[in-house]
Specification:
The protein is α+β, with helices and mostly antiparallel strands and 381 residues long. Helix content is 17%, strand content 41%. The protein has helices spanning 11-22, 78-87, 140-150, 206-217, 271-281, 333-340, and strands at 5-10, 36-41, 47-52, 56-62, 66-67, 74-77, 93-98, 103-108, 111-116, 118-119, 134-139, 165-171, 174-180, 184-191, 202-205, 224-229, 233-238, 241-246, 266-270, 291-296, 300-307, 311-323, 327-332, 346-350, 358-362, 370-376. The strands form three sheets. Strands 15-12-13-14-26-25-24-19-22-21-20-23 form a twelve-stranded antiparallel β-sheet. Strands 10-6-2-3-4-18-17-16-11 form a nine-stranded antiparallel β-sheet. It is elongated and about 80 Å long. The termini are far apart.
Length: 381
Amino acid sequence: MTTPFTLTAPREALLATVEAALAPVERKNTIPVLANLLFEAGPDSGLRVSGTDLDVMTSVTSVLEHSGMPEQGITLPAALLHDILRKLPAKADVTLVASAHGLASLTCGRSRFNLQTLPGEDWPRLEEKTAPPARFTVPARKFAAMLAAVSFAISTEETRYYLNGVYLHSAGDQLIAVATDGHRLARAVYSVGDGAAGMPGVIIPRKTIALLSSAIKATDSQAELAISVSENRICLETGAVRIASKLIDGTFPDYVRVIPPANPNRWRFDVAALLAATERVSIISSDRGRAVKMAWGQESVDLSVSNPDTGDGQDTVDVTADEGGDATIGFNAKYLADMLAHISGAATVNLGTGGDPARFEPVHHEDDEIALTFVLMPMRV
């Protein structure tokens, strides 16, 4: 007689494991097994719990001990299990027993639930069939900072699917993350040595980036992130969490030619002051996408927004002209504010003519490990 799968664990430990694996699972699924979590044997007799939507899979390995685990594991209803665990008493022990008849019992004190299960054999696997050409590690928090700095520029247009993620590639000893929606562009560069050499350029989907960012927030500040990249898969592993994801199948545009070179018109400014002024003058407009006009002088920049229905607003911020003459340009107020919100301290802006894209960069300090560049397309004003 086969021994049933049995697990007894503290409610908090089991809930944390389930929550971490639950992230990619959709509550409504036409494929029943996709609404479930896979429970299987992990390394060193621990437990591995996984959730997937067929595009991305999150796996969490815990030290929870179990017995009688089938070779292919079992699956339990994700949302239902999570909801039950959240309502159980704190600091209580939870016991799970799954039979071979498609049922699992969950008991905790006087509470008892019977849940429908599905066999682990039905679980879709997203593993890479061949060894990835690039494997390397980076500090998890640094990689998260790179993604956070550029993700705001990801396009939401489904017709331009190749812009619906972050383009990750290497150049020499540098790891580079880029995102653009055609109106703005953000690039983050971090030196990783030669570990990323030979890595194919890949586009990481927005959902995968969000899952990874959440996973990294829960890790130790000194945690390392192991990255394995192939042409159609990326695997990211930090601590107990492993995220395997499909990549966006498309060609990212040649973004380098969009970044304008340095030119004589350059100003230095305080980011917080310019952001606050931008947000103030844009109040006058009910349309957050309305252009804010910026007249850059030798010692100040004058911001103005005009709305024929409500009036107009003006503000002024002190700046320093490093070189060059005066310039007037217009930007989408929302795009400008979004970009400034991802810079701290002081920054510089390079401007060409009123119709040329503008290049923004934080003022570099010796201890800065991530180099950021932002590009904004102008608006007619």
